[in-house]
Amino acid sequence: MKVSRRRVLGVIGVAATAPLVAACGNRDSGPASVTLMLDWVPNTNHTGLYVAQANGYFAEEDLEVKIVEPGATGAEAAVGSGAADFGVSFQENVTLGRVEGVPIVSVAAVFQHNTSGFAAPLDRGIRRPRDFEGKKYGAWGSASERQVLASLMDCDGGSIDQIEFVDIGMVDPFVAWARGDVDFVWIFQGWTGVEAKLRGVDLRFLGLTELGCVPDYYTPVLITNERMIRERADVVQRWVSAVARGYQFAIDNPAAAAEVLVNSVDGINAELVRASQPWISGKYAEGATRWGEQATSVWDDYSQWMVDHGLQSRLINTAAAMDGSFINNR
User: Fold this and answer.
1) How confident is residue 27, by pLDDT bands cut at 50, 70 and 90?
2) Are residues 276 and 226 in the same domain?
3) Are the C-beta atoms of residues 107 and 223 closer than 8 Å to each other?
């Protein structure tokens, strides 16, 4: 199925003001219709989702899945309110959401290790976190951005108060850099980092796991809400099983998976997808026995780190924030 990159906001807007009438998930009643909200425009972080759609894995689980791009409130708010059934999020956002009482739950890790970091063109003179002082940061609207940057600056002897935050939302970072709107942004190495090489743009990439200031954590993660788990656990299990098959296909067949993504999304950069997918496929389940696994220690360590640095008010209940049973039971 070809999915337009145009945001599907009408359904989400209605659902935000009234609960969705959800299928019960009983296979005898026909396919269950669910909505999946992405975190950003489609990219190779999402390949397994599109493979599950295109290869019929969702259909084999009696699921009809609508994939939509994020609205103004983001996937966490949409999933937490029931406006979307599933979403693509990040461990840092789930952690902050749980502290604030948002009933979202991570059911699978897209990657086993954090492949994100802060990037800037070489001419911006950024070599380490404290070099962010006096620079303009291209923010995309997550509450966790300021917390993570504050920790990095403190760790390296800088001050977050010396960073100018510029809200660029979903604007292409290369456009923002070229216009001089921003100096550095938070990117995924396997997508924007690969795109920089294709464009011939030399970037300084400061990977979060390489800086020694922030513990490794899961990003992105796939989320649902407590009500889905409580009332439609069978649907959640079927959805996770289909998605796991999609990502395993992408791990085993990077080139074929890239073509699925190219053929599924109108207007996507095919050259970038084909260059990114081989690198990304090697990262999905790196070091794990199966795709999607989550360790409670990773969640506990990140929450403790946030509390220790004064970035959140209390520890989260990891057992409520993360549910690995759907991956383990497939």
Assistant:
1) low
2) yes
3) yes
Alpha helices in the chain (DSSP H): 10-17, 47-54, 57-60, 74-81, 91-99, 143-155, 173-179, 194-199, 208-211, 226-231, 233-252, 254-264, 270-281, 296-308, 318-321, 325-328
Predicted local distance difference test score (pLDDT) of residue 11: 32
| Kind plus residue range of the DSSP H or E element containing 189 | none
Q: What is the pTM of this model?
A: 0.87
Distance CA(210)–CA(240), nearest Å, equals 31
Residue with tokens 């609207």: 141
Same domain for 206 and 126:
yes
Domain count, the chain: 2
Same domain for 34 and 86: yes
Task: Tell me whether residue 131 is in a domain.
Answer: yes
Q: How far is CA 225 from CA 117, 157, 173, in A?
A: 28, 39, 31
Residue with structure tokens 């290790």? 113
pLDDT in tens, 226-277: 999 999 999 999 999 999 999 999 999 999 999 999 999 999 999 999 999 9
**pLDDT at residue 3 is higher than 60:** no
- Nearest-CA neighbor of 60 among 258, 239, 328? 239
Identify the domain containing residue 163 by its residue range: 116-211
